[in-house]
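tool=predict chain=A
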Amino acid sequence: MDIIEITESNYREYKSLNIVAFSFAYEGAMGEMGAIYIICHDGQIYHANYCQGDDPLDPSHINDIIPVLKDISWRMFDCLSNNPDWKPVDLFAGNNLLVANEIYDAFMKKVQEANLEHPSRLFQRWPGFMLGLIGKEPDSLTMKDIWRLRRTQNEWSTRPITMLPKRPKKQNSNLLYVYISGLIKKLFVSLHRKN
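tool=predict ok
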């Protein structure tokens, strides 16, 4: 299984995906902040990131790939769907999942049957549950497996994240400040582009 990367350079190729579910991580989310994972009806998994990486997707282009995103009301820690064909599921810690209505009930039944020890465990298990329901993979596939696949196929763990500055030799305590400042600057730039 390959994970297809959607970037700012190639997003136009992925405007008509047949999406069954997708996760969306806020910029400060636990896990991979800014990550978008998409599972389509054919079982293909796509990944995009709108705030980090070598070629991050511009936030204004996310709606081009996932048109239903315009029908989502984002709140502090979760979201609401204003589209009757999609239902949200909270994955906790700034991560949200939207599931197509056609599979939502079966997905939630699978979640209940799994009897997860904490609701946040769904973050790790949702891709396997989804792929199992559409008959494309065993339902044991986890986000960790997907991250390993991405590392293996893209060797992204060895490439620097372009948003982070090189660490100064004597200013290690300022690294977090520089990183957060960069995130804030990027947010203001993306908001400015929208206006």
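The helical segments are 62-65, 101-114, 122-133, 143-154, 175-194. The longest strand covers residues 19-25.
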